[in-house]
Amino acid sequence: MSGFRGRDAVIVGAVRTPIGKGKPGGALHEVLPADLLAHSLRELVARTGVDPALVDDVIAGAVTQVGDQAVNIARNALLGAGFPESVPGTTVDRQCGSSQQAISFAAQGVASGAYDIVIAAGVESMSRVPMGSSVLPGSNPFGDDFARRYPDGLVPQGISAELIAAKWNLSRTALDEFSAGSHEKAAAATKAGLFDQELAPIAGLATDEIIRPGTSVETLAGLKPAFYHPAYEERFPQIGWEITAGNSSPLSDGSAAVLITTSEVAKRLGLRPLARIHTAVAVGSDPLYMLTGVIPATEKVLTKAGLSLADIDLFEVNEAFAPVVLAWAADVGADLAKTNVNGGAIAIGHPLGASGVRIMTTMVNALEQRGGRYALQTMCEAGGMANATIIERL
């Protein structure tokens, strides 16, 4: 059973840049976002050997579509990568899940017959285009009707993470232990060369810049709460102020791309399918808690796929904040030992619009390295949404 009807959709290539610090001093700060994405696109077709003229579309995720990331960065990047002018491109925004949604759109297009070969990609340069900079002073992206529905207003993501930690009784120590583990796993994976196959070095950066080997619970315990505000303390007295820079994902720069086609086309072109996109869903959830959509998304994608938790060999849950993953595991009953086995966004980084494809790239390789069959990826998203995708190794 599969969540897609019609033709299959398989991943035949996956590549990403190393993730850089999303600050002016980061290794990728001088690289314009369009060039950052162009690098992954160029590397993808070079590694697969596919003629870019055969690509029916490039669908790229980007969250802050302003400034250097404005004016349909997917199209600009593919032209910068040297693709023929005949190749179109479009840019999508489902907040942090933007490029995971790009994968879903690409797979849907292939399964329906609208595409034969399509690239799903993503990019974010948080050092050059700061998060939130697309909201101009005096603007109101929510509208009056939204305000009438939510008269108390919503909160920043960091406060949502605090609310989750409080509701699921997650202690500061538990959050910091999970976060230190993310760095430990990512550092070990880097040292063992487990990321080598997926990485496309750029601007002198060959490995992920943010991973901190030797990160300890004791070190993280010394960090101050990152989102404390007296107004929220009064509104939400249950909050324990447990969220710090150490148990949150850092500002990051990076890009990633995957090539999706059918098994038949892959065979004709001499390409080896790495994994089949088995099932993909998107859900909405409580916009106040905002980051808990990964729970119903996981339940929905498993039901639609006709699979159980026991069938899944690996899980990738975006580490926007440590309580997101821990609350998810507690509610769905997933095994944390099979989750983010090579570390997650807390250590590797979270370049918003690129993260969905970055995680997919890492997950495809981890599934092959471990000889598993099924893997499940899910990401929380601003506004109270989540994507979930199951792949099957072929």
From TrEMBL:
Coiled coil: none
UniProt KW Acyltransferase keyword: yes
Pfam families recorded: Thiolase_C, Thiolase_N
Alphabetical UniProt keywords: Acyltransferase, Transferase
CDD domains in alphabetical order: thiolase
Residue ranges occupied by any Thiolase C-terminal domain in the UniProt entry: 272-393
Active site per the UniProt annotation: 96, 350, 380
GO molecular function terms listed in the Swiss-Prot or TrEMBL record: acyltransferase activity, transferring groups other than amino-acyl groups
Top-rank lineage group of the source organism: Bacteria
Domain Thiolase N-terminal: 10-263
PANTHER family: ACETYL-COA C-ACYLTRANSFERASE, BLR7806 PROTEIN
Similarity section: Belongs to the thiolase-like superfamily. Thiolase family.
Protein name: Acetyl-CoA acetyltransferase
Organism for this UniProt entry: Mycolicibacterium litorale
